[in-house]
Amino acid sequence: MLAIDVKDLRKQFSVQKNREGLGGALKDLFKREYNEITAVKDISFSIPQGEICGYIGENGAGKSTTIKMLTGILVPTSGHIQVNGFVPFKEREKFVNGIGVVFGQRSQLWWDIGVIESFQLLRKVYRVPEAEFKQRLNELVERLQLGELLNRPVRKLSLGQRMRCELVASLLHNPSILFLDEPTIGLDIVVKTEIRDFLKKINREQGTTILLTTHDLQDIEALCTRVIMLDDGRIIYDGGLDELKSRWSKGREIQFQFGEQPDVHTLKKLTEDLQGVSWSVASDLTATMFLPHEINVSDALSRVVGGAADIRDIKIMETNTDEIVREIYKSGSASQEAADKLSSYTPADKSQESIEGKDGQAAADAKAGEKEPVQS
Ligand SMILES: Nc1ncnc2c1ncn2[C@@H]1O[C@H](COP(=O)(O)OP(=O)(O)OP(=O)(O)O)[C@@H](O)[C@H]1O
């Protein structure tokens, strides 16, 4: 069975227009006018059980609105949703027992009472038998190291401590699907890593399906094999993260550090029969080779190592996912055609602030005094 199945899902909001000034306010009293905002525009996707899927997009893309419809908080304007076999907004009571939700910006815990009392209240809400609750709580408390926090009021917890408690709260009734809306927002890298490790574990051990929205692409890299990308209420990409990276990154960069100033013409000569390989000199002692995906790294490396003198260090640069996703948001499409339009983009261009740039050789010539790009 699919954990989540969404077809042609749409959500429109009517927002009241506020006319300017006193006159406008008076007019508003007698005749209200509304704007229609379509936050989610006929999207379809399905998520099998046990998958961790990232749901990303710029501010206002429609992520939270989707999560709210999937969790039964909002009623869709049109389309179909099934989560765990239920229509979320119709069969609320049965449905909520199978899902856990964490909104990073909002708390499901009671602010003034001890954490353990909030957990006890949630046990009653979800009707979890006492023995089962105790066993589960002990397990979660141990994993997330919450022991000494249980008797503190929630308002006295740090953000990281609270977020770990929120995760426990969302899992006390052993849901098979977990919805996480910005679970790592504002957290330091240590707590982020703890939370990511914890999520990976519960997914691996219990097969929990996770739908995760985040602006932190490291969350996506650490947890998700699949990513759904939203732009202005529409899905612009649904697939593997690796596939997205290889479609959008045009190749790899290898940075060489030399003992003496490299001669770019010699470097260029070494790789001249490798199509698409280019060189740029970043500083007196470093040069960067850009390789298209089709060129084998060891092939290119062996030529340089065999021919260039005094190499002190070699660094193979990772594709920067943030940069790729930013480019996709900018173009509004993650399609192959959009990626191809950026064919002049290479990591080497970026590190050189587009010496060659999209305008070609003219820009390169203009900057030739500072940095010298050489195309094989
Ligand atoms: N209750 C509401 N009434 C009117 N408009 C709304 C409401 N909720 C969301 N919107 C609008 O719907 C669009 C999508 O909002 P949504 O909160 O789903 O985006 P998001 O992708 O979660 O953004 P963010 O990353 O900033 O949280 C926005 O234009 C927002 O202003």
UniProtKB/TrEMBL annotation:
Residues 350-359, 367-376 have a biased composition (Basic and acidic residues). One of its GO terms (molecular function) is ATP hydrolysis activity. This is ABC transporter ATP-binding protein. It comes from the Bacteria. It comes from Paenibacillus nasutitermitis. It holds the Pfam family ABC_tran. Residues 332-376 are annotated as: Disordered. Signal peptide: none annotated. SUPFAM superfamilies: P-loop containing nucleoside triphosphate hydrolases (SSF52540).
